[in-house]
Every structure is written in structure tokens, then in C-alpha cells.
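Narrative of activities, Objective 1.

The group set out to show that a structural description can be obtained from nothing but a protein's sequence at a throughput compatible with the screening campaign. Below is one input-output pair from the validation batch, recorded exactly as produced.
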Amino acid sequence: MCFRFFYAIRELWCFKAQLKHFMQAPNLQLANIQDISKPELDAHGVSILVLDYDAVLAAHGEPQPKPEIIVWLRQFSKIFAPGKIYILSNKPTTARQKFFLQNFPEVKFIIAKRKKPYPDGLLQIAVESGVTPKSLLLVDDRLGTGILATLIAGTQGLWITKPYVNIMSRPIAETWFIFLRWSEQLIIKYFL
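Output recorded for this entry:
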């Protein structure tokens, strides 16, 4: 954990200009994963879609995606080629993996040796799918983990600006992640 923190700080400094650009460029941001369109992905040369789980598909700690995300994923996985959607989460619980195996066997759940912001998971997906990193797109809610990993790996990224949050079910965890997202933005905007 300590190594990952110092690695993230060093890489935040190295990629400060690109991270600031994510905060300023509407074309690098999405309110919600449901706003993704296949024509837009095609226009950017995206052949592999990689999704973070927490705050992108569901609130933190939830074992299944939100019902509206399940509907979207069913529709989108038919439009987007089978086997071209991956889940890359820093918390790949057994319940989540089981859910996807039973309901979305065409969506691959990747467990990286090292968590984001390390680029390992993204690079593993590129090798496994036989594409260049530039044709991967990661959708993530955190600038200091997922989006930073995209910059390190040389993949594309979209930053979710209205992440799923459920304060009532997990008040401490959700408050912590709200604070992390806020502090990352503050650090990137004013201190890097």
C-alpha cells in the first residue's frame, strides 16, 4: 500500500498537465457510463472497452451493478463486439466475479497483480486481446487511480464526473471515496 501511494504521487507529478486536461476537457468526461455510444468509440479507434466497477457500475461495495446499468450492459454488449468489454476493478470480489460469469459471460473480469494506478491490468488486457494500448478505453471515476493508469499505460480514458454513491448503505466508505475524489481534484488543480 505504501509503495502504491508513493508511486501514485510520483506519477501524478509526471502526468500533471494531462490530468488537468481531463478536468477541463468535456470530451474526456462522462456523467454516467450510459452516455457512451458505439459510434463515438469507433470514431476514437476504441476496440476494447474497460470499465471500473465501484462508482461506475454501482456504488462502492455493492455486489451487482445498478439495475439501469445491467439493462445498459445487456444492450451495449450486443452492439459492441462480444469479448471486447472488460471489468478492471481494484476490488474484484468473488460475488462480483460470480455475477458477471452468470449474467455476462462475454464480459471479462480482470484481476491485475497490482492495483491501479499501476498500469498492469490495462497492459494485461492489451496483451490478452491482441491490440495496442491506444485502442483500449478505460472508464473510471478516480483521476488518481484509473485515469492516471490510462496515462501511464498509454491507453485512452474517460472520467466519470457523477459517480454512483450510496451514503445510506456505506456511510464511512462512501464518505472516504468522496473525500478522495475531491482531494485528488484539489491537488491536481492547485498543487501540481
